[in-house]
Every structure is written in C-alpha cells, then in structure tokens.
C-alpha cells in the first residue's frame, strides 16, 4: 500500500459519501484492484458509521496519513451532511482482526437497512460484521423469485437470503449452517422485519451429514448455495462443492431454480457451470447475476460469482 495513493482514496470516499444512500453500502473497494497502491483497503458505510478495513499490514507513514485524513474528514461539510457519528479502523490481517475507534463512539450492534429490509450488524469483534454487501443483488433476486416457494438456504450464515425470501412471499425457508450463533442472529434478523417465524426453520447441522433432515422439508422450488471458499475441517471449495451439486436433483421440485455462488478468485464461472454439467446434468445454466457497481473488479472472473440454474 502506498501513502501517495491516499489522496485518491479520500477523493473517492468524499464523492461516495456525498451520494451515499440511507442504507448500508460499500463506499470504496480497493480489493477490486482498480486503484494502484490501495488494493488492500475497503470502506463501508453503516448509516452514520464509517468502517475502514485493512487487509495487509501497512507501514507507519501510510497508517499515520490514513488516520489523519479520516480525522480531517470529520471536519468537512460532507461529514455533517451525512450525519457521520463514528469511524472505525479494522486490521483484518492481524489475529482476531482488532479494531480501533478513530472518531466518535462506536455502536457495535447497529440495525442497518438494505433494499428496505433490516439487518443487525456486529461491528469490531469478528472479521465480518454479519452481512456480505457484495451479495446485495443476489438477495434482491431471491426476494423477486421467492413468492409461494419452499426455499432451501445452504450455508445460511446470518440468514440474509432467508430474510429476503420471506419478504418476497416464500411459504417456507429452511436455513442450514453449522454455526448456531450465526443462525441465532438470523432469527433476530427475521424478528427485526416482523416475519412469521413459523415459516422459517433453522438447522444447525453439518450439511454433508444431514441430507435426510434437509430432504424432509422438500422438495424445494428454490435452493441457494453460498459456501465459504474454505472452512478448516468442514469445507474445501473444489472438493466439496460438487458433493452438494450432485444432491440437487433429489431436493428440487420440477422447474426449480438454484442460485449457486462462489467468492473465490481461484475459480471462474466455468467451475460452477462445468461442475453442474458433471454432477447434475438435469440442470441448465441460465445466467450470471451482475455484481453491484461499487464492487467493480479489474477481473470479473475473480470477483463474486452468482449463477442461476434451472431444473
């Protein structure tokens, strides 16, 4: 990371703040590698709180200039106009991803809005705050396609897809994730939106050991697969994704849809398309969903890939 590039960072940041919606949003995406010297920095807007992430250790000159620039930002008219309240710097590269509050008083558990739906964030204690912002269009798509459907949400995390599905009129959503704590946050997200929890199931199970339980609530008209790229001891992308795909014909209703996602730069769209042909040839590739413009990448195959398939 180059201190000389921070002038561009602050120029882009002020521009995006000026146009920031009254929703949670990525403001600067250095990880898309479009800004030389800023590849390891991102900045998110949590409706009053600015969340800056560093993904690689920076030298003292860079850090000092970054912090000074962020503090100077709080004295500018744009900060007052958007009612900024806090700035947090998180060191994602370090053990425990420690955070430091540079300005204001952090609200570590704010409720934010995306596409009119509410989500509870958890800022500063984990690497991720509970909602992957690059998946906004994916959640919007699910909301548009979920009406009167049984929906299966695999690797549900905090159940963002589930919230979108119920908001879109789904009859039932089954969320599966090994982490009970994440599913508990998902339950809270549904409550925030005043959803009927009788329409939502939460299965804290290892997917690969629970196909019988998962199948009981089927068949499903819509299945979402959004796994981590790697999770030690439980999921390795190139080996385990195919194990899920081969189960799809037994889980899907005729005409059912699948939203298959992968966010690893190590594989491209062909990995999913070819794997589906190999493991579940009854399903046809329909299209790739666009990513939100704020997540532009110099190589679209390295960015988030969200693909629609039909049975």
From TrEMBL:
Pfam family, any one: Methyltrans_SAM
Organism in which the protein naturally occurs: Vibrio hepatarius
Classification of source organism: Bacteria, Pseudomonadati, Pseudomonadota, Gammaproteobacteria, Vibrionales
Protein name, UniProt field: Methyltransferase
Domain S-adenosylmethionine-dependent methyltransferase residues, every copy: 25-309
Gene Ontology molecular-function annotations: methyltransferase activity
Coiled-coil regions listed in the entry: none
Keyword ATP-binding included in the entry's annotation: no
BP GO terms, sorted: methylation; rRNA processing
Annotated Gene3D superfamilies: Vaccinia Virus protein VP39 (3.40.50.150)
Keyword tags: Methyltransferase, rRNA processing, S-adenosyl-L-methionine, Transferase
PANTHER family: RIBOSOMAL RNA LARGE SUBUNIT METHYLTRANSFERASE YWBD-RELATED (PTHR43042:SF3), SAM-DEPENDENT METHYLTRANSFERASE (PTHR43042)
InterPro entries membership: SAM-dep_methyl-trfase, SAM-dependent_MTases_sf
Key word Translocase present: no
